[in-house]
Amino acid sequence: MQFSFTSLNRFFLTPLSAVAFLGWVYFLISSSSLPDPVAIHWGISGQADGFVSRDSYMLVVAPAILIPWVLQALFYVLKKKSPLIQKFIGGVLSIIYWMLFVIMLSATATQIGDSSAAQSSFPISLIVFLLVLIPFSLWFSLAFPSIELGNDLVVKLRGIKVLSIPMKEIQDVETTAMTPWNFGGLGLRVSGKTLAFIPSKGEGVVFSLRSGEKVAVRSNQASEVATSALSKLGG
Fold first, then answer.
1. Which pLDDT tens digit goes with each residue over 13-64?
2. Least packed by Cβ within 10 Å: which of 22, 32, 62, 190?
3. Phi and psi for 51 in degrees, rounded to 5?
């Protein structure tokens, strides 16, 4: 049985880091190592402007850490028959988890030993990172996809491989007119059992997988791509 990094992250790294972090927070609260109240929000300048009592701090950090973890486990169970969608959603939830983990860890660590939470300041470098991350994510996900056909179907965004599926797992290929409304918007989307790369309205190629899932990719050479893919499938 192949044990991938995704499985390692889902079954070991995520739960162990969550338990370790929450145990650490409990220790800090019980030993009065955190100020009372504790800062839970910082303005754009990095200065604290939102607070909660020390005894209630766990009620803030626990859901932020546990909800993405629980959702990962839930989608793993519910989407077993849709491995592609399961992997994609699991990856997104994993990114969200680790982002929140770093934020919560930084927010907590900066307040250890402070007599007043008003003295604490959120790391400016982390604020800058978060402010850059959102537009970067949009810039990346809205990129026009490129399709490569070999032993695998490969989809790239900005030259980076984001999807690779063995051709033997593809059952059929067809062209279609793609519109954002069919997939819930622009960018990298999940709609039912379809994973879509749709930066704009126009021609696209739909790859139907043996798992019952589909991959829809916007392409200005949809007919050529479909013909090439079908020839590789012997169709």
1. 888 999 999 999 999 999 999 998 999 888 777 778 888 999 999 999 999 9
2. 32
3. -140, 160
Under CATH, which architecture does the 146-233 domain have? Roll (2.30)
Q: What is the rounded distance in angstroms from the CA atom of residue 104 to the CA atom of residue 140? A: 26
Residue 151 CB partners (closer than 8 Å, separation 6+): 166, 167
Residues 57 and 55: their CA atoms lie apart, in Å, by 6
Contact 66, 17 (CB under 8 A): no
Residue range(s) in the chain whose domain bears CATH number 2.30.29? 146-233
Does the pTM exceed 0.85? no
Helix, strand, or coil (residue 191): strand
C-alpha separations of 218 from 102, 176, 178 in Å: 35, 9, 7
H or E stretch at 188: strand 187-191
